Amino acid sequence: MCGRYASTKDPALLAAEFDAVDGTGDEAPGADYNIAPTKHVMAVVERKPAEDADEVERSIRVMRWGLVPHWAKDLSGAAKMINARAESVLTKPAYKQSATKRRCILPAEGWYEWQPGEGRKQPYFITLGDGASLAMAGIWSVWWKDDVPTVTCAVLTTDAIGAMTEVHHRMPLLLPQDRWSAWLDPTSLDPSELLAPDPSIVEALELRPVSTAVNSVKNNNASLMERVSLTEDEKPSPTLFELS
């Protein structure tokens, strides 16, 4: 967790929403309703646009999902490093440098989670439901081979809180708008005060049961995010649906 999510807005819309400039050029991926590990995604970063620049610039960039530390021999471990635990991100060697110097926001319409059950696992799409993007806290790194850089990223996760505990024990670290600047600030080397989940965002989430079609990465269309009706046998505890 988080192992799949949706990001369907074009970079111009994301730039407006996150008060950034579009730096994707011709690399921007198209709308993706079923993002899986190692796919290319859009991220929000703050960096100096040039070495001699006096101020940082917030921009939308393209990265590969699955962090690869700069010292890795190859890209083979990327799929196993799509998430970084907020509790240990500042101490684990693979993540520490990125957490202190290279933080990003990964915009999403929402993410998918599978609730365990006696039979098949029921997928849910977790979203704000009002058209606003979720700002998932992330970290990034640059891996080089033959003078060619590959920029990779990971989503930070925390213990689930509130209604999310009924779906999974982990959830992405979601940043409210008033934390965006502090999280992205490249001059701040200690983000420890920003690593706890914000209850107000979780309270606003819609936990939407969706079709098991999302189980296959080959399926990729807007219907994957649509609510489906569950039979009584498929429904989990009533609390979840009362909060949905």
TrEMBL record:
**What is the top-level taxon of the source organism?**
Bacteria
UniProt-listed Enzyme Commission number(s): 3.4.-.-
Q: Name the Pfam families for this protein.
A: SRAP (PF02586)
User: Is DNA-binding included in the keywords of this UniProt record?
Assistant: yes
What UniProt keywords are attached to this protein's entry? Covalent protein-DNA linkage, DNA damage, DNA-binding, Hydrolase, Lyase, Protease
Cytoplasm found in the keyword field: no
| Homology family | Belongs to the SOS response-associated peptidase family.
Q: What is this protein called?
A: Abasic site processing protein
Name its species.
Answer: Lentzea indica
Instruction: Please spell out the taxonomic lineage of the organism that makes this protein.
Output: Bacteria, Bacillati, Actinomycetota, Actinomycetes, Pseudonocardiales
